[in-house]
Specification:
Elements: H1 3-30, H2 37-44, H3 48-59, H4 63-81, H5 86-92, H6 98-109, H7 113-121, E1 135-143, E2 154-161, E3 166-173, E4 176-184, E5 200-209, E6 213-219, E7 222-223
Antiparallel strand pairs: 1-2, 1-4, 3-6, 4-5, 5-7
Helix pairs in contact: 1-2, 2-3
Length: 252
């Protein structure tokens, strides 16, 4: 391969990612409306087939599942930040049926909308900003999907240093093919419409477990990308420990 061709490959990859990010921005802007695959592929300036395949390769999920995740994420925001009724919120995020919204919200977040609102008012759920960007309290869990939603198969909270690899052992993981998610938050980034999303994440896809066992995974937190699906599960309190406490590089 010539030098010119080698330069062209990453440029092509960057252009494709930018196309998918345009479609994702379209989802965030139009999540309350019916959004078709044709509409999204046009916003990305890609053919319908190429768009659907590339979107899944980059995000790990289909455009439809990404859209559904954005809708539930925005519903969580409205439940916390507004006095709107659950019926109003259901309609505002694109659901025509309150029952369908409540069922999918409960499945994704781990509790019904009314309970989520009640607990959020008491600051019992959600991520809290870290006082120190270098040391983070990290939620690590094993899930059946590439979106962090529904109760985990196994999970724990650990302390880790941002920018450094760390190991985590998750107990009693049953046989299957799983996705391991890690998530943490910091106040390093200014506010925008997605600040209640985690700002640091990592994921291990298609982790196969043949027999019930403790699962050791190596992770390294990175800044959240626009192509990362929203986190839907109501996470536990992730307030950081005092900065004087040592941060472990390897956790058993």
């Amino acid at each position: 391969m010539t030098a010119a061709k080698r330069r062209a490959v990453p440029e092509a990859h960057a252009a494709t990612r930018e196309s998918i990010e345009r479609a994702i921005e379209h989802i965030w802007e139009r999540y309350s409306e019916p959004v078709s695959l044709d509409e999204l592929s046009k916003s990305a300036l890609l053919s319908r087939f190429h768009f659907a395949r590339t979107f899944r390769e980059i995000t790990g999920v289909t455009p439809g599942r990404f859209l559904s995740a954005v809708r539930i994420h925005q519903a969580k925001r409205m439940l916390v930040d507004t006095p709107r009724t659950i019926t109003d919120i259901s309609s505002a995020v694109g659901y025509q049926s309150l029952g369908s919204f409540t069922n999918y919200f409960t499945q994704s977040v781990g509790m019904p909308p009314s309970q989520f609102r009640h607990l959020a008012e008491g600051t019992a759920v959600g991520l809290h900003p870290s006082e120190n960007c270098s040391g983070l309290r990290v939620y690590v869990g094993v899930f059946p999907t590439p979106i962090l939603q529904s109760p985990p198969i196994a999970a724990k909270i650990i302390d880790a240093a941002y920018g450094h690899p760390f190991d985590c052992v998750l107990p009693d993981v049953p046989p299957g093919t799983w996705f391991v998610h890690a998530v943490a938050s910091t106040r390093a980034t200014g506010p925008d419409r997605r600040t209640d999303q985690p700002l640091f994440v990592d994921r291990r896809d298609a982790v196969t477990v043949g027999a019930p066992r403790d699962l050791r995974v190596s992770l390294r937190l990175r800044p959240r990308r626009p192509t990362d699906p929203p986190v839907l599960l109501a996470l536990p309190d992730l307030r950081p420990l005092p900065t004087a406490r040592p941060i472990a590089g390897r956790v058993g």
